[in-house]
Write a structure and sequence with these properties.
single chain; mainly alpha; Glycosyltransferase; two-stranded antiparallel sheet; 14 helices; 54% helix; disordered N terminus; hydrolase activity
Length: 406
């Protein structure tokens, strides 16, 4: 009898345990329901986690890679985490460096000898997690990325080549990829004398973009400049590419507002960066569509095939909003930023039944040169893949929503 009672108790315990395990297994699923009562920044951050449960596969990858796109999205998420303290978001951020960085500080899939400015961007996440954890391997990564910048090939005047395989070329993208990290590294980890040399080098990058890439008539910036004039996409007289690409200019705007977070108040180049930002803002609002958004090729809205594009629009929104919030831009630009954000919600955002937020009409990729060759024509820019939830849009969307407190 005692044996039968014991068996009954054990059986009941087993089934109760199974029920409890099932309940616990259901919890993550419930937690991932994304309420429309949350702010847009948190909704998009949680949506990205649901879309890409593995942060090393952000950007639709099939295997982990050290790249700028996780750096961009995870940096945006870190700003959300600092506001709402959602542990799920922090754990997701930490998982990327935890898996991509060996115990000795080696970066998986990274080669310094490529001298690719895109690889610097994920350094912003190293900076963030190192300040949280003080793990030596993350500091070693930052040292490695700084060492790359110290050896980065340059134009005759000191402008960083975008990549070693793109000699003598400066792209707007490169300033966002490298300079905010470059500035924060100098500020926190170098002596004042050595840091000041880095600040001078950083400001020089912006000076050269202003000198060569800015069009005096429109105030807009050409995507690339080839000092050697050897590229087929480069104008033989100016070395400039042919068009004003929305996201190219978006990268540059974000570089302007973000580098100011770390450039010292007393540095002689700071006032110039703020001047450049004001010129930039004045130019882009002239090309803002009545919807509040911007076209893929900025200055040709009527041309057949051109379309209103989400990644550049999100970047412009963030740049204008942060510029006003930091006091770099006049308050009038906040109206442009709010109009842009509303236009994004109206034209680009859709929400699934489970609350997952989608950002549609994103240009998937665009560049210059390479193989197959990208010639920088209008037809090239409008012909690249258009997709939803490209991280080059979702990251800036999160940051724009935070700046506007939406």
């Amino acid at each position: 009898m005692k044996n039968i009672t014991l068996i009954t108790i054990l059986a009941l315990s087993f089934f109760t345990s199974c029920k409890e395990e099932k309940k616990q297994a259901d919890v993550p699923k419930q937690e991932m329901e994304i309420s429309d009562s949350l702010k847009w920044s948190e909704r998009m951050a949680l949506s990205e986690i649901k879309r890409f449960p593995d942060p090393t596969l952000l950007d639709f990858r099939d295997k982990p890679k050290w790249s700028y796109t996780p750096g961009l999205v995870l940096q945006a998420m870190s700003k959300v985490y600092e506001q709402i303290n959602n542990q799920k978001i922090y754990d997701y951020i930490y998982e990327y460096p935890d898996r991509m960085i060996e115990k000795n500080g080696t970066i998986k899939t990274y080669k310094m000898s490529n001298y690719n400015l895109d690889m610097i961007k994920a350094g912003d996440i190293m900076y963030y997690v190192y300040n949280k954890t003080q793990e030596p391997r993350f500091k070693k990564v930052m040292d490695t990325l700084h060492k790359q910048l110290e050896g980065q090939p340059t134009t005759s005047e000191g402008g960083f080549w975008h990549k070693k395989i793109y000699p003598y070329q400066m792209w707007l993208d490169g300033l966002y990829m490298a300079e905010p990290f470059h500035a924060k590294y100098a500020k926190d980890y170098m002596s004042p004398v050595e840091a000041n040399k880095v600040y001078d080098k950083i400001v020089l990058q912006f000076d050269l973009i202003e000198k060569y890439s800015r069009d005096s008539e429109t105030g807009l910036y050409y995507h690339g400049w080839d000092e050697s004039r050897e590229q087929k996409w480069a104008n033989k007289e100016t070395g400039l590419s042919e068009n004003f690409w929305s996201r190219g200019m978006g990268w540059y705007g974000m570089a302007l507002v973000d580098v100011l977070d770390y450039l010292p108040e007393n540095h002689q180049g700071r006032a110039r960066i703020i001047k450049y930002l004001n010129q930039y803002a004045e130019a882009i609002v002239k090309y803002q569509d009545k919807s509040g958004t911007w076209f893929q090729v900025l200055n040709l809205p009527e041309r057949e095939g051109n379309y209103l594009e989400a990644t550049g629009t999100s970047m412009f929104t963030y740049t204008l909003a942060k510029g006003v919030n930091k006091g770099y831009l006049p308050n009038t630009y906040l109206e442009n930023a709010n109009k842009a954000f509303q236009g994004t919600l109206d034209l680009f955002i859709t929400v699934e039944d489970n609350g997952v937020v989608n950002l549609n009409k994103c240009c998937g990729v665009a560049g210059l040169g390479g193989d197959p060759y990208r010639d920088g024509t209008f037809e090239y820019y409008i012909g690249e893949i258009i997709r939803s939830n490209d991280p080059k849009g979702t990251g800036p969307f999160i940051m724009a929503a935070l700046e506007l407190n939406k």
